[in-house]
Write a structure and sequence with these properties.
Blueprint lengths: L4 H4 L3 H22 L1 H9 L21 H6 L13 E6 L9 E5 H17 L7 E4 L7 H13 L2 E3 L6 H10 L4 E4 L1 H13 L11 E5 L5 H11 L2 E6 L10 E3 L6 E3 L4 E6 L13 E7 L10 E7 L1 E2 L11 E2 L4 E2 L4 E3 L2 E3 L1 H10 L3 E12 L2 E10 L1 H4 L3 H19 L4 E5 L14 E3 L4
Parallel strand pairs: 3-4, 3-5, 5-6, 6-7, 18-21, 19-20
Antiparallel strand pairs: 1-2, 7-8, 8-9, 9-14, 10-11, 11-12, 12-15, 13-14, 16-17, 18-19
Bound molecules: 5'-O-[hydroxy(phenylacetyl)phosphoryl]adenosine.
Length: 432
């Protein structure tokens, strides 16, 4: 099932030509309308009229999150505000958020791209879609909302509310598709059990999750607990938001909507392009955005691309699940660790609750990593020796996965904070 079959299955040669034409138009548009790009292109000696091939993209300078911050609030807009029909922001927790804008045409494209990922995730006009992402300046909820309406589904714009209410509405309104962060979906799944409900009495069929990294083990857990097919969806406000990429029924990589976005993967240190399949930082250039186009935007997200054909028939390149961001990457005693690696191990261990937090601290000039993990009551109140054995088991599994020894501390159920939005996995006390 496709939303725009002809476009999603476009011949790659035709796609390349379309991308080149759209890239030429974008380069010209930002040069003419955004002082930041005019200056940057001038400094790098770029002639926006001399674009002949997609490889010319490499000559363009990168755009960073910092560049967008400096231009707060409207400095990067490529159209006058009277043409902007909506303003939202990125969800960054540190510093100034990035303000993004959309023209009427941008909203139309965004709705269609969100519709593509919804349909790829199983949603049709017969579905009842519960959007538990936060409405407001965050781009996730409204993006999916417009996509779901475009598909013709019945939308419940519940936003982030008390989890029990979330479950009650899900039961009463017979929700068939749930959209939220994977960590919040897990909190919902646990609340269903706490409320004494049988998941089979609900009507859930699909979960469209995203907005934060999550492991395959987490998918497995959510599919089992909620009795759904769960797909991963990727996007970011600076580029558009949900609708940039999403999984098809194969659930083996996320198709990037390449007719609207040109992607590269570069080495985050040298900024040189990496060979296909290697993991690096994803860099995105928008091809159709009018109000807020970006050229070679450094996402800080780490992933790799795969070009082999997908059995689903879509010809767009796939990105592997984002394993983390360059700024979530923990460097501990010289070893790189991602929260998602720790998550996978915890899911494998019987008796742990997959709610966890990573604490980084420095003791006597040595960095220490401690994993706080919620454990079942029987383990928490177990005999000291049994509990110790259990912790040792987790520690050795983590050591095997990560290559370093880390501390593990069991905490009682419901001790770690639940958030309706993006989970905060790492607390870095070294910086305090
Ligand atoms: O989180 C957009 C979104 C909303 C995507 C809902 C999917 C569903 P921002 O708040 O701007 O936008 O945050 C973007 O979130 O750079 C990634 O680091 C992370 N992220 C988004 N989707 C995924 C995903 C939305 N599927 C930032 N896997 C991005 C891993 C993700 N990380």
């Amino acid at each position: 099932m496709y939303w725009e079959g002809e476009k999603e299955c476009i011949h790659r040669e035709a796609l390349k030509q379309l991308q080149l034409e759209r890239l030429q138009a974008t380069v010209l548009r930002v040069y003419m309308n955004v002082p930041f790009y005019r200056k940057k292109f001038g400094e790098s000696g770029i002639d926006p009229d001399a674009f002949r091939s997609l490889e010319d993209l490499r000559k363009l300078p990168f755009t960073t999150k910092e560049d967008l911050r400096v231009s707060y609030p409207y400095g990067m807009f490529a159209v006058p505000l009277r043409e902007v029909v909506r303003v939202q922001t990125s969800s960054g927790t540190t510093g100034m958020p990035t303000v993004v804008g959309y023209t009427r045409n941008d909203i139309k494209n965004w709705s269609n791209l969100a519709a593509r990922i919804l349909v790829a995730g199983g949603v049709t006009q017969n579905d009842i879609v519960q959007i538990a992402f936060d409405y407001g300046l965050f781009t996730g909820a409204l993006g999916l909302h417009y996509g779901a309406e475009r598909v013709g589904a019945s939308v419940i714009p519940i936003s982030s509310v008390n989890t029990k209410r979330q479950v009650k509405i899900m039961q009463d309104f017979k929700t068939t598709a749930l959209m939220c962060t994977p960590s919040y979906a897990l909190a919902i799944a646990n609340t269903i059990v706490e409320m004494g409900l049988n998941v089979n009495s609900l009507s859930l069929k699909y979960g469209l999750f995203g907005a934060e990294p999550w492991s395959e083990a987490m998918r497995h857990e959510l599919q089992g607990k909620l009795k759904i097919v769960a797909t991963d969806n990727y996007g970011l406000s600076e580029v558009m938001s949900p609708g940039v990429a999403g999984e098809c029924p194969e659930r083996n990589g996320l198709h990037i909507n390449e007719d609207h976005f040109l992607v590269e993967v570069v080495d985050p240190e040298t900024l040189q392009p990496l060979p296909e399949g290697e993991t690096g930082e994803m860099v995105i250039t928008t091809l159709t955005k009018e109000a807020f186009p970006v050229v070679r935007f450094r996402t800080r997200d780490l992933t790799s691309l795969r070009t082999e054909p997908c059995p689903c028939g879509r010809t767009f390149v796939r990105m592997n699940k984002v394993m983390g961001r360059t700024d979530d990457m923990i460097k501990i005693r010289g070893i790189t660790v991602f929260p998602s690696q720790i998550e996978s191990v915890l899911f494998e261990i019987e008796g742990t609750e997959p709610h966890y937090q990573i604490i980084l601290d420095r003791k006597a000039a040595v960095d220490e990593l401690t994993v706080l993990v919620e454990v079942s009551e029987s383990i928490f109140f177990d005999q000291v020796r049994k509990q110790k054995d259990f912790i040792e088991r987790i520690k050795s599994r983590l050591a095997a996965e990560l290559g370093i020894l880390v501390e593990v501390k069991p905490v009682e159920k419901q001790t770690l904070e639940r958030v309706e939005g993006k989970a905060k996995r790492v607390i870095d006390k070294r910086a305090l």
